[in-house]
Amino acid sequence: MRPTAHYLAETEAHVYALAIAASVLLAFFPFLTVMMSLCRDVLRWHAAEQAIQLALQDQFAGDVGQYVAYHLGLGQWYIPKLSFTSMFLLLFTANGVFEPLEVALNRAWGVTTNRSYLKNQAISLGLILACGTLALLSLMVGALGRQFLAHAPGFLSSMALFLQRLVFNLAAVPFSIFALFLVYWLLPNRKVNPARVAPVAIVVGLILEALKYLNLMLNSAIHEKLDREYRIFEYSVTILLWSFVAALIVLAGAHWTARHDTPDPLS
C-alpha cells in the first residue's frame, strides 16, 4: 500500500481529485432535479421521490442532507417538469466529471495518449446513461422496500425508518459497485481485463459506503467548523470536500490495480 499512499500525497492526485469534485458539485443539483422529475412526472411514483429524499439524508448526515432533501420536497413549485435545459445541464456538467477522471486513470495505467474531446464526450455520455440507469434502479428498489414496509405488520412498523435505510443501503451498494466497475473498465484509453478491476471496484464501493458512516460520526465537528468559516457556502463546501475525498479513494483503487498489472492478451 505504500506506493499508493505516496501517490495520494502527490500534487497531481489532488489536482485530479479537486477537478472531479468541482464537477460533481456542478452536476449534483441538476442530477437530483432530473431524477426527481422522472419519478414525479414520468413514473408518477411518490415512493420513489421519498426514496430520493431518504438517500440524500443517508448520504449527507445532518443539516446538509436535510437542507437538500427539504428543497427537493417543495413540490412542483420548486422542481419544474422535466425539461431539456435540465437534461443538457446534467449531461454537460456530468461529462466534466469523466474528463479529469479519464486523464487520471490513463496516468495510473501508464497511458500517454488521452482520447480526443469528442471521443471522451461520447464514452462519458454512455457512462452517464449507464450510471443514471443504475441510480434509478437503486431508487426503485428502495421505493419498493419503502412501500412494503408501509404495509408491514406492527412489529416491523415500529422499526420502519431503520429498515427503510437498511433496505436502501443493501440495494444501493451493488449498483454503486457496478457503476465503479464500468468506470474502471471502460474509461481508461486502453483495453483493461474486467476480471482485474472487478475486485477493486468491490473494495472501493465498500470503502465509499463506510465513508458515509465516517461522515455521520464527524458531522457535528465538521458542521461547526464549516459554519464558522464559510457561512452560506457551508453546504456547497461540504459536498465539495466529501466528493474530493471520494475521488481520492477512487483514484487510489485505480493506482493500486494498475501497479499490479501483468501482461495479458487484453493489454
Q: What would you note in describing this structure?
A:
- By secondary structure, the protein is mainly alpha-helical.
- It has one domain (about 1-260).
- Helix content is about 80%, strand content about 0%.
- α3 (about 45-60) packs across α6 (about 115-150), α5 (about 85-110) packs across α6 (about 115-150) and α8 (about 160-185) packs across α9.
- It is globular, with a radius of gyration of 19 Å.
- The two termini are about 25 Å apart.
List the main descriptive attributes of the protein structure presented here.
globular; single chain; 0% strand; 267 residues; mainly alpha
Give, in order, the helices and strands.
Answer: HHHHHHHHHH
What is the count of helical runs?
A: 10
The radius of gyration is 19 Å
Count all strands and give the number: 0
State the distance separating the first and last CA atoms.
23 Å
Overall geometry comes to globular
Q: Per DSSP, what share of the residues sits in E-state strands of 2 or more residues? A: under 5%
Give the low-confidence spans. 262-267
Structural class determined from secondary elements: mainly alpha
In percent, how helical is the residue content? over 70%
Write down the overall mean pLDDT: 79
